[in-house]
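Incident log, structure service

09:12 report received: a user says their structure output differs between two submissions of the same chain.
09:20 pulled the input from the user's history:
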Amino acid sequence: MLMAFFHSECLAQQFSYQRYTVDDGLPTNAVYGGMQDSKGYIWFYTEKGVSRFDGYGFKNYTIKDGLPANDIFYITEDRAGRLWLHSFAKKLVVLDTNKDSFVTIAEQKFLNNFSFEILSNGTTIWGINYGYGNTISFPDGSIKSEREHPQIDSLKKELAKQGFSNSTIYFYKPFKAVLIDPEKGELLFFDTKIGQVFGKMKVGTYPQQISKIASKSFNAYQPYQDGIYIHSNGDSLIHYLDVGRQTAQHINLLDYFKSIPNVVRFHLQGQQVQVQTSLGLLVLRNISEVEDVFYPNLPPTIQFDRIFKDREGNMWVTSKNKGVFFLTAQERGATNISLPVADDYAITAMASANGRIFCGSRSGNIFEARSGKNKATLVYKSQSPQFNDAGLIKAISAGKGHLWFIRQSDDIYRLSLADHSAVPLSKLLSKGYTPDYRSIDSNLDNPLANTAHLTKVGKDLIWAEDKQWLAIARGNYSYLCKFRAGAPADVQFMSFKRAYSIAMDSTQKIWLGHNDGLASFENDSYHFHDGIAALNNKNIWDIEIGPDNTLWAGTDGFGLVAVRNDTAVTIKGTGNDIIQDIFIGKDHQVWVATNYGVKQIQARQPLSESGVVKVFNQNAGLVTREANGVIADSQYLYVGTNEGLTRIDLASPHTDSTAPQLYLDQVYVNGRPIPQGDMQTLDYNQNEVEFHFTALSYKSFGNIQYTYQLTGADRAPEHTLSRSVRYSSLSPGTYAFELTATDTRGTSTTLSNPISFTIHPPWWRTRLFYFLCIVSLLASVVSIYFIRVRRIRRQAARETAINKRFAKLELQALQSQMNPHFVFNSMSAIQHFIQSRETMLADDYLARFGQLMRLFLESSKKRYITLSEEIEILSLYINLEQARFNGKFSHQLIIDERIDLYSTLIPSVLLQPFVENAINHGLFHKPGPGSLIIAFEPFGEGVRCTIEDDGIGREKAMEIRLRSNKNYKSRAMQMIEERLEALRQFEGYGITFQITDLMGRTGESRGTRVVIEIPEID
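09:34 re-ran on a clean worker, output below:
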């Protein structure tokens, strides 16, 4: 049990509350009280409605939403998580939080629905109104069924028959009651179901209390486990009547408060019984053991009504005129230390030495904060009023006997810790000093010549007491002052560059933080470390050196940088921070004062593994998150801000590591809410999904980081501070939404059941459709195959027929070329030459005849021959005919030079029949000598051949042939026409010929002209 001395110490503690009012969303500043439901939400009941708070905002309910009245005095939660609303209305209403809807249980039953209790034994829920003698009960888990329980008045009559006429009844379970008989000084335990007393006990050593607890007027009572708590108004004792053990236990409020509270109420929060009093809060466990005591220490003008403690250990204080005051569990270990100078509260610089902590203020004063004390002491009082922060303390460096400090536009001072006397550095140097010019460029003005210039515009300083060195970083040039006993000080110039911070490592190397990077001074030599990329062009506000000589540099907006051996690492979790102050603590702990509060860094090897482990800001007790200075010892963390000095107990029993409660509030599909159970399957066009979620962590003040990933859509987890995530145009597939919430202390909770769903593809993208498509494709391929096979077979048959026809036509053409008459006449000519002993002519004729036959046979094997080959055949043929006819006609071969004889193709055996007709039918019967002209000229991309003779013409030739007795019929023209038609149909070459009879002026025949047009043949 907590001891009474706890009261005297904590009563003086001042807290920095977070306040919630109508401006934040409350329906009114007159708040009766609050509670936390089993899901973790905070509910406030007020005279203007009920409000739910989730750490981000308030959701308010009024009679328009279903409240029985706007004036709600209390809320009770049952086993099913439903909220029972206490009011003076004539109907009893329950808020079903699972459905966010109101259900009216009864009307005109409870004429005073304020003073009733909700009891449950796991099977039955009871609503009991002692003031009107009513009870209402119904099966647990249902709020639709209603049945009457015997009236309390009837029960009292039954008890009177058994001799308990003046008994007071307290129900602690359904059908179970405690009866208090003040006349007999006994407690009786009664079972209303069987109507019998099953046990009794004496009150014990407190018989004077029996009459008080028997009177229900203004008494407070709370059923709990197998018994009931009772407090009588104006009494200092809380009684617990333990029915199971048939004993009574007592708690004396005077052990925890100075006086007896005016008001005492019981509040059941989970398994805790919280005793809400007008003086503070008492939290009980194990029936009579006090787990926690809280004193709000609010000004008397704030009329606080109820206090309750949530599951994180945070305290909520509701008031009737100022809204709600909120205090995190960690803030309870924080104290705002009182400063002894009125209106001086802004701490601008801090330092520690030998366990003593010194703080400099904006007004130019210096205080000492002592461990465990709530008030600082003054060690230096500013001697003159300062304006525009001219006397602001810029930096402090302390040793065993002295500390040094810089005032912004004044001077640098040495303060004796023994008598608190302060001496300006300018006065110390005016007695004489030795300038050291070794590191000064002779071309520059001497910065050490004027003493007044040495003590102005200081930014930071470091005092090495063992060596009596004072190193000063300044706005124009920095220098090192070495004090010597009984002799003038040595003053050595270090740098002309503007410096804001300075530090010294264990080797006496001095480090300077400039507005553009880091530099060092050692052995009279200045070196700018431009190889440290993480600090180049960065303004360095503070430098500290760790025991292992790791240099820690705080930058202006680029976080904390750790440097070792010219290798720099920006510490994780500080990347955007403005670092005002650095403190090197024990066990590799580094503390930094930032614009986001104080951050605790765990230094690890390698340095890249170092990172922020804790953040201390408003939820840790700071009045503001902007921290100017920080110092930590074995138990406390001291933080200086513009709002004062705060001490945080690092070993406080109230620190909390409770993980946030995470809920997926609602899922929207295509902008419409959908129950999570209906999300398993979605259509292809239901591809816009939005998730809304909430993590309950009131100590985080809404600053919760959510890590989410929709597997199937996101390649890696994403991070957000928002409470909703939207996905558009999701492709068909299977997805699972995973979510983790991390509070400001780094504690995480993962959604227990990821939301899994499948978006089905459209019917044309389903497997069945693909299967049918494949089957159709295969069927089509097979059909096409067989059609193709049939077509190929038909084509092959057609080509076979064509080839046969061409072969037949070509054979016919060959036959026409090898005309029997021509062959016979040629043989006769050879025989004539032989008989005439014209051997040479016979040999020549025979040779040319044989060559012509060979060319005839060779050309018959080809469908197309070159024009050169055709001309060779025609020339041989004409020469033989000229020899046979003994020079009866002459011939002329005309070839246009634009024609390429060796690439121009024509059908084989095409021209010879026309030439044969011209010779045998036109020129042969002409009385005199004749002439044959064959001309070739270009025709488009092809060639045009003109065969012209001056013979007797076609009409006379036909007459001669009709008069002839020969049976031979020439089919040369018919075969030519058939060949040309076959070439047109099957080869696509449209070859035409035109025969024209040449006539004289008087109408006589002058010969025949044949024009053959042959297109380009590939």
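09:41 both user submissions now match this output. Likely a transient worker issue. Closing.
09:42 reviewer note: Residues 396 and 405 are 4 Å apart (CA to CA). The longest helix spans residues 767-817.
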